[in-house]
Amino acid sequence: MNDQRLRLDLSELAEEVTVVDLRDRTLRTSRRLGIQRAVATSAAALVLIAAATGTAFAIRPDQSPNPQPADTPSVTATPSPTQPPSPPASTSAGDPPGTSPGSGSSTNTSAVKFGKLVYGPAELTGAEAANLRSWRPGDNPVRLLALPELALKGNVSVSPDGRRVAWVDSDGNSNNLFVANVDGSDRQKVRSDVDPYCVTAVWSPDGRQLLFRETKANDAGGPGRYGVLDVRSTAKTVRWWATEPAACHALWSADGRTIAMNTDLGVTLYATDGTTRRVVPGFSRDGWRSNDVASLSPDGSRVALLREKPGGDDGDVARDLRVNVVLDTRTGKSVALPLGGRELWQLHFQTDGSMVVRVRAGNGYAVLLVDEDGRKISETAELAAFRDMQILAVVA
């Protein structure tokens, strides 16, 4: 306890986060999610909460059912986004106008296309499992593998090529890292004792490696270590980081050079060996802060995140893919987006630098395709079937 107090005091003097504070808050969130699931599933699930050790166990359901055939869009699309928006909102939450979205040569707009959007539940509903779904505007949605709902909401990761899925689930003794094809085939357990709440496993751009954090199931908030796992190697070799950053929710840039993570106050960029590159400016204890990063541009120059003022639910650091601003990671300034006065809801960068932008449109959502210079290429009303879901990834 004395050591923890000393670390907190030193942290305040240096205006930096501590491992204990960030991860303790993460565990409080994991307990909350575990309690929700226990109440919803009653006899079907057992949640053990140990206050002394800060541990939350989730009961894994039976093996995922076989994938089902493609859905048909039996529901009507949401109202046309050209109708009067409701409600109007700014991307910068009252900030002065943001930086110019373009700074280089013009984009070949004819080559900018929608990737495939992968959806999962936005909220816990009490179901023991739920399906991922994929959709490309103009095509029919497709039902993918079923996963435990806590994994879908908290730690599932889809490979950049859209072929593989990684997630962490508990067997009561260990939190295990699994990978499988998106149709549920070739399911493998590749690692035990993996952090399921704070540093969720994230794919490298080539889909070969997973960044994860190792920690014991009964000490999820205690010391651990970061590793990069080669999932294609026979021995599942791991390259361990020499440092353990006090951070959560990793994002890997498409150029393979940068990893962004939340600290207690904001966002820090790391090299792929764990060394610190730079801190994104504009965050402070009494000003803007963020517990949730959602997407990183291919070169690490921009990050999409949920930015808030202190207060409210800022102690909750469970992964949230909501977005209300895009920031320049060098200046901390907000980037202007062509939203037409509508509320920004989610944003995912594609590998060519373009963005898939989800906005509130009437009673539903619309998805915009925006090039890297900030010009809107196209807009599509999202299917009503996705109204209660969130976009987990945009893949090739």
Automatic annotation (TrEMBL):
InterPro entries named among the record's database cross-references: 6-blade_b-propeller_TolB-like, WD40
Pfam families with a match to the protein in the record: PD40
Low complexity biased stretches: 71-80, 89-109
Keywords assigned: Membrane, Transmembrane, Transmembrane helix
Region of interest: Disordered: 59-109
Transmembrane segments: 38-59
Domain of life: Bacteria
Family named by the database record: Belongs to the TolB family.
Name the UniProt record assigns to this protein: WD40-like Beta Propeller Repeat
Species assigned in the record: Micromonospora tarensis
